[in-house]
Write a structure and sequence with these properties.
The complex is a heterodimer of chains A (285) and B (247). Chain A contains 14 helices and no strands. Chain A has 285 residues and is mainly alpha-helical. In chain A, helix 3 crosses helix 4, helix 4 packs antiparallel against helix 5 and helix 11 packs parallel to helix 13. The longest helix of chain A has 26 residues. By secondary structure, chain B is of the alpha/beta class. Chain B has a domain of 166 residues: Rossmann fold. In chain B, the strands form 2 sheets. In chain B, strands 5-6-7-3-8-9 form a 6-stranded mixed β-sheet, sandwiched between helices. A 3-stranded antiparallel β-sheet of chain B has the order 2-1-4, with helices on one face. The chains are: A mainly alpha (285), B alpha/beta (247). The interface between A and B is medium-sized, with 26 and 27 residues. The complex binds adenosine-5'-triphosphate and magnesium ion.
Chain lengths: 285, 247
Amino acid sequence: MSFIDAVIQYEFLQKALLTSTMVGIICGVIGCFIILRGMALMGDAISHAVLPGVAIAYMLGVNFFIGAVISGVVTAMGIGFVSQNSRIKNDISIGIMFTAAFALGIILITFMKSSTDLYHILFGNVLAVRPSDMWITLGIGIFVLLSVYLFYKELLVSSFDSTMAQAYGLPTKWIHYFLMTLLTMVTVASLQTVGIILVVAMLITPAATAYLLTDRLWIMIYLSAVFGVIASIVGLYFSFTYNLASGATIVLVSTVLFLLAFFFSPKQGILWRAIKSRNKKMSLS
Amino acid sequence: MKPVLHVSNLFVSYHGNDAIRDVNFSVKPGKLVGIIGPNGAGKSTLLKALLNLIPRDKGEVLFHGKSFADIRKSVAYLPQRSQIDWDFPINVLDTVIIGTYPGLGFFKKPRKKEKEWALQCLKEVGMDGFSKRQIGELSGGQQQRVFLARALAQKADIFFLDEPFVGVDVLSEETIIRILKKLTSMGKTIFVVHHDLSKANEYFDQLLLLNKELIQFGDANIVFQKDILARAYSGQFSFLEEMGVNA
Ligand SMILES: Nc1ncnc2c1ncn2[C@@H]1O[C@H](COP(=O)(O)OP(=O)(O)OP(=O)(O)O)[C@@H](O)[C@H]1O
Ligand SMILES: [Mg+2]
């Protein structure tokens, strides 16, 4: 049976497709701000830091979304607190805090006595998306996109020139924590599709691909979302057809897109750069 | 006339080391004020403290009799070193359009009007031919002019420019001074941190001579005297003579 027939026939596949498309879009959008602010490591940190929250939420029987957001935001604040109040630099602080949170999460998960749960949280299992998860992802998606649309100006200035933003009265610190909250929400929404370990790839790779192709932020955001969606759909296809882990196939597809841009981007691609400088040298000799 | 800016007993330190001590001055609207002094004199610190970008230990700063928070949208600031990422995906025009953001407030997006205004500001600094360039693809002086255009786009009443002429060639420097003089004739007040003493008395209406303490503040030709300048530049007389300062 072909992938398309299967999608038409199986509801679980439709849900998977819808969820991963949404995840592709929001990861692409938020990822642009993450890479432009030099916070790629932070994306990785937050995704790992949601683990203890997820574990506690499972134990208490509440939705894992709530626990994940709380532990993600608390870790983000802890990272900021340590780096602002000591000579410890941000990247070091990130390394300390997220590994601590992740380690705590692993211990908590073992109390749940179900290793398949851990496996799914770590590596994603998009084919087992429940309706409630799908709706949460959709809700998060709308919230994230609306926030970026409404606060686009503020996100742009504070990412580009935070001194100016601060001088004219924008609460740059709060914008940072707001973005961290959005990042946490996006991470949580991605758990089912790609899993904790690989979320960072969905945040960074499509955005980096777009970054190589344009010099304007809004175009970068759209491109990044498109790449995220392509990666999700094509990745899902390979995952379903060859029975592979969805997170891994999705990430590899986005890596292929990145490599294409890396070599062939008209402005930044290494191929054109080499050709142009060779032509220049030839014309001079 | 009431002063635009009134500063009294201003003290600022970094980790307990004084950067500026007991600075007092008051500026009337429509003045082009040069802030001069040797490296490390606290010129940049003074601007940052006035703009609440760093905490003050003591002192009062009033703009039109109000605190900075009440008037911050009418202030444009050009830092000495923009800590920005020159690879950011933004072109020259969009950079200047950012200058209109403070006036737009939340939720409103810049439209055609803002775009045209930004282009006009670019024209003022002679950079309108570069509007589609990514900002990293400009020379240092061109970048400086773009950021000046952004300050103009802000339609501010008060400007604080920290060494706007670094890397700018003589011709552009004079164009920019002309623009600044035009702005002051319209009642705007402009503070410029400036390094090159040779033209300080031609360029500015008033000079603020700083070396941790305020050495002297007043009309340019009064402050611009060898013995007064020497007090800030700790007796570098030969240097001052080379710069064309007469006794
Ligand atoms: N972030 C900082 N932390 C600690 N000390 C600082 C900091 N910034 C400035 N200083 C110190 O405060 C003093 C004043 O610095 P400031 O940058 O205001 O000087 P400046 O007059 O602008 O000098 P320049 O002409 O080199 O720009 C200097 O002695 C400097 O070493
Ligand atoms: Mg300085």
